[in-house]
Amino acid sequence: MNIIVCIKQVPGSTHVNVDPDTGTLIRDGASAKMNPYDLNALELAFGLKEKYGGTLKVVSMGPPSALEVIREAIYMGADEGILISDRKFGGADVLATSYTLCSGIKAAGDYDLIITGKQTTDGDTAQVGSELAEHLSIPHMAYVKELEIVEDRVKFVSNMDEKIITATLKMPCLICADGDINTPRLPSFKRKKEYGDCKDKIKIITFNDVEDKDEYHYGLKGSATQVEKIFEPDKESERMVIDSGDLSLQMYELLKERKFV
Asked: Is 57 within 8 Å of 70 (Cβ atoms)?
């Protein structure tokens, strides 16, 4: 079984700069880490590989600095990685991002199962996984909290808030792993010493490598939406301490005064 896990490098801090012209995050030079939900997707893939065999490949779209999260995934147990990177891909919204990932995955070879995290901590849209599946014309399911392989199908349990869904999907397919599905493992120091910079295990795909050469399908040019404004919310430092008397009555009077009740 050939498994692909989509991972992403996200800001390691809430203090990030924004390009005033495009409304996108300025990632160069900023501290970064692997998207936390992608760690759950990786751990799920490792468990499937250990149980059923096969290969595990990670795919990431981003600037050259995203090589760090691909290396981290290889140190954790991935067989190889692919970085989809080109200036023409920069500034993409979820539509252009999912299409670019689709183009890169098609150039990467065959697969049976694609796993993503449920969302990223920088965009929080939770849309890229399902859009990627639509571009690839494969079935998909989100918020998966349990999964096993039964012949050529994926049997899963999905937590949809108001209901629990148990069903199967025929492979190839895509699933978005829920954040509570497992506890991710740590990178292996032994693998890090063995593989070093993982140069022979990472392939870089650029605009020249994808089949579709229409620039209006990628990056800012291919984005159906653009951010109009992004800003940090105002922070209020005012506080009040009530430490004596009838606390419940005083709290009620305060809430009433400020028209919350």
From this structure: no
Cα–Cα distance for residue pair 157/159, rounded to 1 Å: 7
Q: How far is CA 124 from CA 12, 107, 118, 166, 194, in A?
A: 15, 27, 9, 25, 35
pLDDT band at 127 (very low <50, low <70, confident <90, very high): very high
User: Helix or strand or coil: residue 107?
Assistant: helix
No. of H helices and E strands in the chain? 6, 11
Dist. CA 26–CA 6, nearest whole Å = 21
Dihedral-angle region of residue 124 (phi above 0 means left; psi in -120 to 50 means alpha; beta otherwise): left
Res 34: pLDDT: 95
The residue type of 218 is Y
Q: Which of 158, 100, 97 is nearest to 122 (CA)?
A: 97
Q: Which residues contact 128 (CB under 8 A, 6 or more apart)?
A: 6, 94, 97, 98, 101, 116, 120
Secondary structure (3-state) at 221: coil
Residue ranges of alpha helices (H) inside the chain are: 36-52, 67-76, 94-108, 128-136, 189-195, 247-257
Query: In degrees rounded to 5, what are phi and psi of residue 15?
Result: -95, 90
Cα separation, 203 vs 10, in Å, equals 20
CA angle 193–195–200, rounded 5-degree value? 160
> Is residue 20 very low, low, confident or very high in pLDDT (cuts 50, 70, 90)?
low
- Is residue 23 scored above 60 in pLDDT? no
Average pLDDT rounded to a whole number, residues 151-177: 94
> What's 162's DSSP letter?
S
Q: What single string gives the DSSP state of each residue in 62-82?
A: S-GGGHHHHHHHHHHT-SEEE
Distance, CA of 108 to chain centre: 19
